[in-house]
Design a protein that fits this description.
By secondary structure, this protein is α+β, with helices and mostly antiparallel strands. It is built from 5 helices and 6 strands; from the N terminus they run H-H-E-E-E-H-E-E-E-H-H. It has one domain: Beta-Lactamase, CATH 3.30.450.
């Protein structure tokens, strides 16, 4: 019996690892596609909702000193660009200001950091998981996953969302580059036009 339980635990861990790998592969494939920023963000929140089993996923991006809702699944088109938080305001603002994740398994709306938006049904949900989106050590946004019912967040689930948050930053940069710039030279010419690395600074 103990060996059977051990085998079952191992199978569950392998299944979780497989799910994480599939999610990260899908996010990586988004980087290879020519998507507008809204398309990229919507694809990511849809993917995160599916992967985590969450009832909602939202992405906020920083605009000056505010966090702006830029994508959500299920979609709320009327709220995109309209819902804004100051840095440090609400759970999402706290995650952005502190550059730390927040994981609440039940009654997230009772947390003293919580900020209610009557236009967002997600504000009545029980569980809340949020991680910062970071690009080259700069905070550029926050990604949230919410569950209607209490939901204990496992270490693997938190780790997966944190890794997705890191990848989202790359997707955002690539989407903006694709929209704002045209290639004017080959990749080699671009590389050689850059100043050489200083000794000990990234050289091998």
């Amino acid at each position: 019996m103990p060996s059977s339980k051990k085998a079952q635990d191992l199978e569950q861990r392998l299944a979780r690892t497989d799910r994480q790998l599939i999610v990260l592969q899908k996010v990586s494939r988004l980087m290879a596609r020519k998507l507008t920023l809204p398309e990229a963000l919507q694809a990511i929140v849809d993917l995160v909702s599916e992967a985590t089993g969450g009832d909602a996923s939202l992405i906020y991006l920083i605009d000056n000193d505010e966090l702006v809702l830029c994508a959500c699944s299920p979609p709320h088109p009327a709220q995109i660009g309209r819902i804004r938080l100051r840095m440090g305001e609400g759970l999402t603002g706290w995650v952005a200001k502190e550059r730390r994740l927040a994981a609440i398994s039940r009654e997230a709306y009772r947390d003293p950091r919580f900020r209610l938006f009557t236009d967002l049904p997600e504000d009545t949900f029980e569980a809340f998981l949020s991680v910062p989106i970071i690009v080259r050590d700069e905070i550029v946004g926050v990604i949230n996953v919410q569950h209607r019912q209490p939901h204990p967040h496992t270490g693997s689930e938190i780790e997966m969302l944190a890794t997705v948050g890191e990848q989202v930053g790359c997707v955002i940069v690539l989407a903006r580059l694709g929209h704002e710039a045209e290639y004017t030279s080959s990749h080699v010419e671009f590389l050689l036009s850059m100043p050489p690395s200083l000794p000990g600074k990234g050289s091998y």
